[in-house]
Amino acid sequence: MLVFRKCCLGLAALALVGLLAGLVSGDAALWRPSAVLLALTLAIGIGALEALKSYQYTVWIFAAVVAAMLYPARFLHLGGFDLRNKWLVLLVVQMVMFGMGTQMSLRDFRGVVQSPRGVIVAVICHFTIMPLVGFGLTRLFTFPPEIAAGIILIGSCSAGLASNVMAFIARANLALSVTATAVSTLVSPLMTPLMMKLLAGTLVEVRFADMMMEIVKIVIVPIGAALLHDYLKNAAPRGRRIVLAAAGAGAAWMVFLAAGGWGLLARILPAAMLPPLATLGFFLGAVIAGVLYNAAAAILPRLDAWMPRLSMAGIVYFTTVTTAAGRDNLLQVGALLFLASVLHNSAGYFLGYWLSRGAGLDQGSARAVAFEVGLQNGGMASGLAGAMGKLSTVGLAAAIFSPWMNISGSILANFWRRRPPPSQP
């Protein structure tokens, strides 16, 4: 694999020559494919460079943006199938969240009891600083309403697992980081639609209950399935029997739906009862997924280690499709949106750190809170934008914010790693 990566670096050098030649001659038929080839070969080849391999995921995001900007039509449809299809977006975002969930554990929630003050400070900072800074940026800059709503949306989402990785690299309080991420994810069905309703309600239509249920479907259900897998690793026989019985009930429910049962329910039940039943179906599906994944992981012990890569692939998909769909908007406001993302992200780090210090947290904990506040769940924002049918506008901020926060987070984490808090060696 290392030899292949080095060969890709050689191809990248040739692609760079083609790109420069095409730009000088004004030959779009040369420089456009050369630019895509350069980005793709760099994304693969950078893994051969020890000093830069941690940025490989970010370079893949960059490659997706380059390809989608230059050839947008290629990434909107596959044959006659629309790649922005609502159900495809739902399935991919659930896959992303499930992959993230496999890196979480039920033990993560014990930190709420062990360090309640730090968790409370982190979660309050998270759901106040980023939504309010996002709102302020939409007032400072002139964005179209739906793009402005996307900035507030990315600020209103829960923390991403990238914050845990950065806290680990920075030698910050990792236990606090993991627990705060888990809790912010758990409360996001309430806090995200609340902040969107308060701050973005005049920009786009925000249906509080509908958005809450979407977050339950795209975040809580898949992460719940992953946590069920974690529970089954050490479950007592009685607990395992209960879970298997629930999975059996879920399978029966799926068979009922496949046989046309939903149409029957729609005819005999009041319309108000159908959404709760649909949500129940998602939870039963989560039980089935958790049980099946647990069985697969017993056969393939490295499956948990592979899941983050699957999540990253899903985020690359979101970035590609969102960029392709919103290309015209990006050409108009892309530079300004990038500046807003940098300011948004930087304000999260700065205010998260200093407000937590003001609340009495030590330096290691304050650094963890800074990452919790500054690093958002881009997959969740993309999924919600897709559910709203506004991936090309509301989803643009997430497409810009996600790669930048990985770059800035890595820089800050490595800076702090070289300067450990006084209490650490």
From TrEMBL:
Listed transmembrane segments: 36-52, 59-81, 87-106, 118-141, 147-167, 174-195, 215-232, 244-265, 277-298, 333-356, 394-416
Pfam family, one: SBF
Recorded superkingdom: Bacteria
Swiss-Prot/TrEMBL keywords: Membrane, Transmembrane, Transmembrane helix
Gene Ontology CC entries for this record: membrane
Predominant localisation class: membrane
Record-linked InterPro entries: BilAc:Na_symport/Acr3, Bilac:Na_transpt, Na+/solute_symporter_sf
Membrane-protein topology: Multi-pass membrane protein
Annotated compartments: Membrane
Protein name: Bile acid:sodium symporter
Organism whose genome encodes this protein: Termitidicoccus mucosus
Lineage: Bacteria, Pseudomonadati, Verrucomicrobiota, Opitutia, Opitutales
